[in-house]
Amino acid sequence: MCGSFCTFSKAFEQMEALVRAGYEVIPIMSQNACTTDTRFGAAKDMVQRAEAIAGRRALCTSVETEPIGPRDMCDLLIIAPCTGNTLAKLALGVTDTSVTMAAKSHLRVLKPVLLCPATNDALGASAQNIGRLLNTKNIYFVPMRQDDPEKKPCSLVADFDSIPSCAEAALEGRQIQPVFR
After folding, report:
1. Which of 3, 4, 39, 129: disulfide with 81, CB 3.0–4.6 Å?
2. Rounded Cα gap, residues 84 and 175, in angstroms
3. Which residues, 6+ apart, have CB-to-CB distance to 108 below 8 Å?
4. Which CATH architecture does the domain made up of 5-171 adopt?
5. Exposure b/e, 35-70, CB count within 10 A at least 16 = b
């Protein structure tokens, strides 16, 4: 989970759905997600909710997430929500957060990463990063749509409800289409 705090409730719903479906979930939260209190809730409450859903402690540092690939800890890494900042870091190979380190570690053993973007600049500054990542091996996207074309014409948010079906597709090496709805 990255710091698109307004989408945390959607992410938690899908985390619960994956657990109900029998998947084991390892919560990974960026430092901002673990420590920033917002109008959407206190950071400690968000961490506690993720841990309660998954039944395990959230990983919030790069040191904790670096072993994900070498220790074969996951079949699929889902970044939901994935901010424009994280999209840029992934596109450029920057690994300075727990989430980007988790992705790097997972990708280095050639396993799929599913991105669930929520960013106000997806059709602006982040567009080039989305384009680069769409062309990156083992990176998949949850389909996205404009959430408010009139007031936020560059904003896109992924269809969080599609995470389970997109996860299955990513595990099969398939990108759900269309990517932009």
Report:
1. 4
2. 20
3. 69
4. 3-Layer(aba) Sandwich (3.40)
5. eeeeeeeebeebbebbeebbeeebbbebebbbebbe
Vertex 98: Cα angle to 59 and 11 (nearest 5): 70
Cα–Cα distance measured from residue 63 to residue 59, given in angstroms and rounded to the nearest whole number: 9
Where along the chain do its domains lie?
5-171
- H/E stretch holding 77 reads strand 77-82
pLDDT tens-digit profile of 109-143?
999 999 999 999 999 999 999 999 999 999 999 99
140 forms bridges with which residues in the sheet? 114
The answer to whether residues 129 and 119 touch, using CB atoms and an 8 Å cutoff, is: no
pTM over 0.70: yes
Dig out the tokens for 79 from the structure. Answer: 């970044």
